[in-house]
Amino acid sequence: MKKTTSNSIKRNLTTALSLVMTATMLASCGSGYDGSESRKSSIYNNTATDNYRYNNDATAETAKGSTNIAGGYNTEEYNHLTENGYKLVSDEPLSTFSTDVDTASYTNVRRMINDGWEVDPDAVRTEEFINYFKYDYEKPTEGAVSINTELSDCPWNSEAKLMLVGLQAREAKVKDVPTNLVFLIDVSGSMEDEDKLPLVQQAFSMLAENLGADDRVSIVTYAGSDSVVLEGESGDNSDEIVSALNSLSAGGSTAGAAGITTAYKLAEEYFIEGGNNRVILATDGDLNVGLSSEEELTDLISQKRDSGVYLSVLGFGSGNYKDNRLEALADNGNGNYAYIDSVDEAERVLVTEMSGTLFTVAKDAKVQIEFNPENVSAYRLVGYENRLLNDEDFEDDTKDAGDIGSGQQVTVLYEIVPNNGNEKSLKYQDNESEVAETSELSGEMLTVSVRYKDPEASESKLIDKSVMCSDYTEAVSQNFAKACSAAEFAMVLRNSDYASGLTAQGVVDYMEQNRVDNSELFELIYKYMQNGTGSEASYW
């Protein structure tokens, strides 16, 4: 990671941001600030996060042993991520990050709310709330991914615009693609609860019943040591696979690293050229023997990801759940990460959306936004705090990034502060020999660029799309309103500094005003309000 001194960055931001903070933004794109009124809000104060993108580990702290869940002690662990702050386009015209299709944060928090627990703010990753829900994006006409955009007003910040970027992956014809799966199952003593191993068994049984004769399944378990329960079984023999799953019982300590090593060995032994080769890890993440720290596990899984074997991580259980370790495994193992809180969620992840969960169509996918300083003064990426990349990583094909499965979507929101300055940079540089081109570019607000590799490729492809100031609209789509609703609720749960005053009732009001078709989110917010764990207890 590129590093720089925080004092130097702070001096630059303090000087530049002081100009932004002393003015009021006019509503239309490109109209900028009139300097008539001083801002009282601190939303542009970025000193807490100004060096985050240069050193991701600097702000990632692990919260352990929270006492606020169900009134009792627990040992759940979550990384603390400082929210992205505003960046000045004059200083940082590029915003670069890895894609993320994980949904574990949303379902894990849903579990907390449904069980009447107080929500740990560190468990809330805004992008995973947004990406849990499905959107109506245009499908790619060529290539693996399409870019969809929408620009309107920011519902939680009246002084900013909001841009939605939606990536839609193509739907692969997966029926003819053979699958080589290794179920890596934690059977340690901590997995004996009903919402752990018994739910794991149900989840994998549902998946097994949807496999065919060309598919192969192996089962590896780990507790104090690892064990091979089933090896290279045909997917046609679902009865034998289910029987092997049902024979498992929990007990002993947890040596996860040994199990990971054995699982990858089996996946490589039964490797199918041109097929889908994947290890699916099911655990509560509470490793306590051998390699067990987040750093050790990350190093281990990073060594495995070039094998051509992908990794999916399924989290289960509560009380001792180690979200930080499981997210690190998925992020560094070319995989995705989901939390299973019910049989219905298991069916959604492993049956209904199986192709997206198991079949990658775009690997090492990265996004880079270039903002035109003539029309944008500042911006803030909503979420994706632990997915940030250095700008030079975008064109570096050796840099690992996120993977997108068949038919999956990636949804991103940016708060944008318009500007009427005359600065130029990068694509938008002023060049006397290119006056006509510069004139054409003057109406552009930004450019969205996406790089990704085909599953078997080592070189990336580039697609991009420009967003014009004229693309702004007051009438928002269901896509926009739904994504905003999910983001707003996440910010309420995180006690976000960038949506101060926003309440759960305010999110409900926004959803009703925009007729958001999302009964799942409505019901969860109502449950949260009924629990009285937030400031909205008085509404019920």
Explain the layout of strands and helices:
Elements: H1 6-21, E1 61-63, E2 78-80, E3 87-88, E4 94-98, H2 104-114, H3 126-132, E5 145-153, E6 161-169, E7 179-186, H4 197-208, E8 216-222, E9 226-234, H5 238-246, H6 256-269, E10 276-283, H7 294-304, E11 310-315, H8 323-332, E12 335-339, H9 343-352, H10 354-358, E13 360-371, E14 376-382, E15 402-405, E16 409-418, H11 435-441, E17 444-453, E18 461-468, H12 478-494, H13 504-513, H14 519-531
Parallel strand pairs: 7-8, 7-10, 10-11, 11-12
Antiparallel strand pairs: 1-2, 3-14, 4-13, 5-6, 6-16, 8-9, 13-15, 13-17, 14-16, 17-18
Task: Write a brief structural summary.
With 540 residues, this protein is of the alpha+beta class.
Notes on the structure:
With 540 residues, the chain is an alpha+beta fold. Helices cover 28% and strands 23% of the residues. The chain has 14 helices and 18 strands. It has helices at residues 6-21, 104-114, 126-132, 197-208, 238-246, 256-269, 294-304, 323-332, 343-352, 354-358, 435-441, 478-494, 504-513, 519-531, and strands at 61-63, 78-80, 87-88, 94-98, 145-153, 161-169, 179-186, 216-222, 226-234, 276-283, 310-315, 335-339, 360-371, 376-382, 402-405, 409-418, 444-453, 461-468. The strands form four sheets. Strands 9-8-7-10-11-12 form a six-stranded mixed beta sheet, sandwiched between helices. It has a five-stranded antiparallel beta sheet with strand order 3-14-16-6-5, with helices on one face. α8 links the parallel β11 and β12. α12 packs antiparallel against α13. 49% of the residues are buried.
